[in-house]
Structure prediction request, 337 residues.
Amino acid sequence: MIVVLNPGVDEVEIKEVEDRLKRLGFGVHRSTGENRTILGAIGAPKEDARDALQVMPCVEKVVIISQPFKLVSREYKRQKTEFEAGGAIVGGDKVILVAGPCAVEGREAFLEAAERAKEAGANFLRGGAYKPRTSPYSFQGLEEEGLKIMAEARDLTGLPIVTEVLDQHSVEVVARYADIVQVGTRNMQNFRLLSELGRIDRPILLKRGMSATIEEWLMAAEYIVSGGNPRVILCERGIRTFETYTRNTLDISAVPIAKELSHLPVFVDPSHGTGDWRWVTPMSLAAVAAGADGLMVEVHPRPQEALSDGAQSLTPEKFVDLIRMAERVAQSIGRTI
Prediction:
């Protein structure tokens, strides 16, 4: 349920409505725009509560939200969400480019990769310090040492960093280094982790679970936003289907659907979505055409030497080609790269 207040209400009137909502058993989430203050009432909708609020002089209207996800829905907030992260505006007209290797493999290799990503045109630098892998024998990441290397790369290039958090116990250390904290596909429904991320002052990039519906994905975002952190990026990275020719099935249709249902920005990861560098560029172009607010692309100077996901990594030269083509697609729909 959302409570739309009249223009020009003061803090005393807002507090009065918030107190009334709390007495009725709701949690309260405030959103202040240029012309309106909207209060999100978190809890099961109640007809008698709506009537009690509607008669308050400072209340313009009360709307029951039909979607199970409340705070991330377009019913709650009609305008798209834009926010600052690492000096860039996420969710605006510019399509954000996140690039870098899958994993931080070592200092020299990562610093080289960071410089090459910067030269190619990346806005953010990606890399995994904590690597949840299907096999316990695969490379698991350098952990905090990897985060320190990423921080050094940020100092060297000026690129803000995006990196994954593994569990609620590593939130504090990852948030200390990262400009954007990533939740991987395996953790999309780790609700303890999501709740913890709702309490930190860092933007969160939430990857769609490999077998998750769009509604489940948005409900996961709801956990973070309802915890007090409104800066969430949805990231489509491919879902598991019966198809075996690609690593996953990249659901491009999820981009316009998520943007219609939710006000949150939507990124696409075509590297994990296809698992093959040959298809990363065409799927990136399709994602931009579909309205994606950002691309997350694996870029490695020597993919054949990568410790993880080399087969789906572009060389810096191929990433430059991708950007050139994506610029033309973005321009055709009134956006920039």
Summary: The first strand starts at residue 2 and ends at 5.
